[in-house]
Amino acid sequence: MFQHALRRLTTETRSIQRYVRYAPSFHSVPFAFVSTRNFTNVKDDGEQPFDTSLLDFLVCPLSKKPLRYEVTTNELINEELGIAYPIIDGIPNMIPQDARLLQKDTDMPADPTQG
Hints:
InterPro entries: Trm112-like (IPR005651). This is Protein preY, mitochondrial. By secondary structure, this protein is α+β, with helices and mostly antiparallel strands. The protein has one helix spanning 2-22, and strands spanning 68-70, 75-78, 83-88, 91-92, 100-101. A hairpin with a 4-residue loop joins β1 (68-70) and β2.
């Protein structure tokens, strides 16, 4: 079995060497055809706005429930679990480990009629 594998490896190596010998060379490409990027004219507008049309498709990865967009904190909120997913440069970070737990108002009474 070992001899069969070794023979096959040798055969494959020879065929690759033949291909490389006759492969077209990229050294003959003139520099005028090489594309270069220039980032000097790129403007960084700061934080990108969140596209609210994504709310039709995005759900919480934990509960699979719809999310609510909070403009003031720039987060996607899951009311049921009390989790807020951050939005960074217009891209929602839906990783549960990166989500923030929302603090419930513990000072408020459970019944609004109690004073």
